[in-house]
Design goal:
- A hairpin with a 5-residue loop joins strand 5 (111-112) and strand 6.
- This protein is globular.
- The protein contains 27 helices and 18 strands.
- With 663 residues, it is α+β, with helices and mostly antiparallel strands.
- The strands form 3 sheets. Strands 1-16-15-14-17-18 form a 6-stranded mixed sheet, sandwiched between helices.
- The chain folds into 3 domains: 47-267, Glutamine Phosphoribosylpyrophosphate, subunit 1, domain 1 (4-Layer Sandwich), CATH 3.60.20.10; 282-418 and 524-586, HUPs (Rossmann fold), CATH 3.40.50.620; 596-663, no CATH class.
- Helix content is 40%, strand content 16%.
Length: 663
């Protein structure tokens, strides 16, 4: 797909110690610079960002169709353009696409371990693989590659299911155990790497992407009606379920063992720590966090290909950039994306960071027309409707980054772990004011009706409902009132997994901690899915230092007062960041990496033109009320009300259903 994102040429004098971004607009998106800097901290490691897929037939004497396995694999060629492989033996078939990062001449997959009966396909990266290798060598295992893949399969041979407890990294993998005729699959603790599956009457299918499962001919693309209400309220599906009926997502921190007649699932990691330490000292906590994050960044800098950072100008990505630059020295590539609309453009802050650390800084601008032209293709890459409009930005910046690097570090996860979202403050304030909330309700309602501000309306909703409801729906971008009006009567209003998470932490009195746990199980997984699908869609690997499981366990062991200060979120992160970044970056108002949807939907070209075409197509097919959709559309276009979020939700749903031919 040809990219047409408008790129900014930055004058060299702006960054006296950096290279101005090269103007390559006339060369097309396949242009590559003639020479790359080779940034690395550890040449001995091996890592692959990949696509994996496999099929276990339930009839013992069945034989895998190799061509079918290849077709499944090659739906994900974008995830691994460097290498490919298949393994088939009777009823089991494994396939792999590979994007080589380290040890680029070794590690072909599928791969067997020191026991030839164990075969693995692996997507991800294990940062402590060398220590594990030495441990396994002492146990008698022999190695033939420099690959962390081989470490995993040998760790499985030595420790069985408990091997996952020893891994520090991001991973999804599958191991065929020929000794027990069983398939073992696992996903990392926080859900950084995706893993989908379908357990059907004739076979068990798994893959990094849903489209590969659909290519298996084991299941057709059908809408799950029980997920529609949750999708329209939250703009995404949580837990195991997807919008595709029958296709599920393995939960983070879980493994499964599949035999012909039995499937066993087990949780190997929990977000919750037994108790909070007391007393809590921000000073000492900040010192410990700085040490953890510094090491998390360091171990993610291992690479035999060029690497950089996505530096949006926010405190999280800027801090990651600063730590990476201090470790590697000058010359780190940084990438940021902006808009012509000044209220949404953050590139000024990214430039401040780039200037301080002498990075090779690159920018692009996403315009309305560019955004809409690529929307359908990105929904295809995402497998489901785009949860976040800024998925388009991430794909665009990944395409830009691919011209210079193969690996980037990002800042995902800090907000959910350290309570950085402003929306976290409302339930906490309501909890403090729970005995006098009735006094505030009429005033808030009057302000909400007068201004039409969706944030005031959200506060109004929370005042009318319980604290549990405020915690559960805190991440919902759409208002239930309008969702219920839009969807067809009788639409099941189910959100089982979100309620299970809510009940799991119901006895915690600290509201901030409950909000953090709720989002780590739901909202954060959507963010990680966005980062994985959009970066891998451009054949680039994204690493997330804030989600090193050691940092997650550290954050989850602390009460709210150790993560925030007064009404200022992410205080712990900011205390560390001010040692590395200008105050203008550290204490700036959080912008949320937004997209000007409100104005773009009002435009007759770009997103507005695309939406009109889709909404007029009559493709709702009974899922929602088309007349109500037209009402929302007209109200938004006239400026009467702002329905941008719900219109974005409906537009994505309709394009997704058409693109995947969902019945």
């Amino acid at each position: 797909m040809r990219m047409s994102w408008r790129r900014h040429g930055l004058p060299a004098e702006l960054f006296p110690r950096t290279r101005a971004k090269t103007d390559t607009s006339s060369l097309g998106h396949n242009w590559l610079p003639s020479r790359h800097r080779n940034y690395q901290s550890d040449r001995a490691a091996t890592s692959f960002m990949c696509g994996i897929a496999g099929l276990l037939l339930k009839t013992p004497d069945a034989q895998i169709d190799i061509e079918l396995l290849i077709r499944m694999r090659d739906t994900m060629v974008h995830r691994g353009p460097d290498d490919e492989g298949v393994y088939a033996n009777g009823p089991i078939g494994l396939s792999h696409r590979r994007l080589s990062i380290i040890g680029v001449t070794t590690g072909h997959q599928p791969m067997h371990g020191s026991n030839p009966h164990h075969w693995i396909v692996f997507n991800g990266e294990i940062y402590n693989y060398r220590e594990l290798r030495h441990e396994l060598e002492r146990c008698g295992h022999q190695f033939h590659t420099d690959s962390d893949t081989e470490v995993i399969v040998n760790a499985y041979a030595e420790y069985g299911e408990q091997c996952v407890q020893r891994l520090n990294g991001m991973f999804s993998f599958a191991i065929w155990d020929g000794l027990t005729d069983s398939l073992f699959i696992a996903r990392d603790r926080l859900g950084i790497k995706p893993l989908y599956y379908y357990d059907g009457p004739s076979g068990f299918v798994f893959a990094s992407e849903i489209k590969a499962i659909l290519a298996s001919n084991q299941i057709a693309a059908r809408l799950d009606p029980d997920r529609v209400w949750e999708y329209f309220l939250y703009r995404g599906i949580s837990g195991e379920n997807t919008l595709f009926s029958g296709i599920r997502s393995l939960l983070p921190g879980h493994w499964m063992r599949i035999r012909a007649e039995q499937v066993e699932t087990h949780q190997f990691w929990s977000h919750r720590r037994p108790e909070f330490p007391v007393p809590c000292s921000l000073k000492h906590s900040a010192a410990e966090f700085e040490e953890l994050l510094t090491d998390a960044v360091r171990i993610r800098l291992m690479s035999e290909v060029p690497l950089g950072t996505f530096c949006s100008g926010g405190v999280d990505s800027s801090l990651v950039t600063a730590l990476a630059a201090r470790h590697l020295g000058e010359g780190v590539n940084t990438f940021s994306v902006g808009f012509s609309e000044a209220a949404y453009d953050e590139t000024h802050y990214a430039r401040l960071v780039a200037q301080r650390y002498g990075t090779q800084h690159h920018e692009l601008v996403v315009e309305n027309r560019d955004f809409s032209e690529h929307l359908e293709e990105l929904i295809w890459l995402n497998d489901e409707p785009l949860h976040f409009a800024n998925s388009v930005q991430i794909y665009a910046i990944s395409q830009l980054a691919k011209q210079f690097v193969t690996v980037v570090l990002t800042g995902e996860g800090a907000d959910e772990l350290f309570l950085g979202y402003p929306r976290y403050q409302i339930p906490q304030m309501l909890n403090r004011l729970r005995y006098v909330r009735k006094l505030f309700r009429p005033l808030v309602g009057m302000i909400g009706r007068a201004t039409g501000d969706h944030r005031i309306r959200k506060l109004e909703y929370f005042l009318d409902h319980s604290l549990d409801s405020a915690v559960c729906t805190n991440s919902a971008p759409n208002e239930r009132e309008y969702v219920d009006l839009l969807l067809a009567p009788g639409t099941p209003q189910t959100q089982r997994y979100r309620e299970e998470v809510l009940n799991q932490y119901h006895n915690i009195s600290d509201v901030g901690v409950r909000l953090s746990f709720q989002d780590q199980h739901t909202y954060l997984v959507s963010i990680l899915n966005r980062q994985d699908k959009m970066s891998m869609g451009a054949s680039i690997e994204a690493r997330v230092p804030f989600l090193d499981y050691r940092i997650a366990e550290f954050a989850n062991s602390m009460p709210t007062v150790c993560r925030t200060r007064r009404l200022r979120g992410k205080e712990l992160v900011k205390r560390v960041a001010r040692n590395y970044l200008p105050d203008e970056v550290v204490y700036r108002r959080k912008s949320g990496f937004g997209v000007p949807l409100e104005s773009w939907f009002k435009d007759n070209v770009g997103l507005g033109g695309l939406a009109k075409k889709v909404f007029d197509s009559g493709a709702a097919d009974g899922v929602f009320n088309e007349q109500q959709l037209r009402t929302l559309w007209l109200e938004h276009r006239s400026g009467t009300k702002n329905h941008a979020e719900l219109l974005w939700t409906a537009l994505n749903f309709l394009i997704w259903r058409e693109r995947f031919n969902v019945a």
